[in-house]
Design goal:
This protein is mostly helical and 177 residues long. It has helices spanning 27-48, 56-74, 82-98, 112-137, 144-167, and strands spanning 11-12, 22-23. Helices cover 61% and strands 2% of the residues.
Length: 177
């Protein structure tokens, strides 16, 4: 059955709670929801980029790692490790070698794929802020590699957005201010 009715009064449980239910509007479900939203949108972008052999597999791996982070934040005994964050750094470094040097801020868009990756980047930043807030409030003891991974993830998505434009031959536009 896809529903239990237990959350009808606006409460939920997480992995590490025995019987205690918490408000769905509290910081923990907010962080979990932001991570879930990010993961779902990354899945949307992955489906859109399905024929892009350089980008789609990277997004699939990100989804796996986001599930681990979601489990950690929910209280399960799961953690991303430093190697996952270092893998993101390596992908970012490889992308940077394949695209023109960054010359300042760029206007989102160019191609549809690039625009979708830019939206994913903003969702990653929001999820990161929510997880950092949990750690700062002492709600969760968040693994240092998890925080580093979430910080690198938005950089990866930005790099992939730039790569999508570059592969399509669409030049970046800088704001004129």
């Amino acid at each position: 059955m896809l529903y239990t009715g237990k959350g009808d009064a606006g409460t939920t449980k997480v992995f590490d709670s025995t019987k205690e239910r918490i408000s769905k509007s509290s910081d923990l479900p907010e962080a979990l929801g932001a991570l879930d939203e990010l993961n779902a949108f990354v899945g949307f972008v992955k489906a859109y980029a399905a024929e892009n052999a350089r980008i789609a597999p990277i997004l699939r791996q990100v989804q796996e790692e986001l599930f681990i982070i979601q489990a950690e934040i929910a209280g399960a005994d799961k953690r991303v490790n430093t190697a996952a964050m270092e893998r993101l750094e390596q992908v970012i470094n490889n992308v940077e070698k394949a695209i023109p040097a960054l010359k300042g801020f760029s206007i989102a868009g160019g191609t549809e794929l690039s625009a979708l990756l830019d939206v994913a980047r903003t969702l990653a930043r929001r999820a990161e802020r929510r997880v950092v807030a949990l750690a700062e409030a002492g709600v969760r003891d968040v693994n240092a590699p998890t925080l580093a991974y979430l910080n690198r993830l938005s950089s990866l998505l930005f790099a992939l957005a730039r790569l999508a434009n570059h592969l399509a031959g669409v030049p970046e536009e800088n704001p004129r201010y």
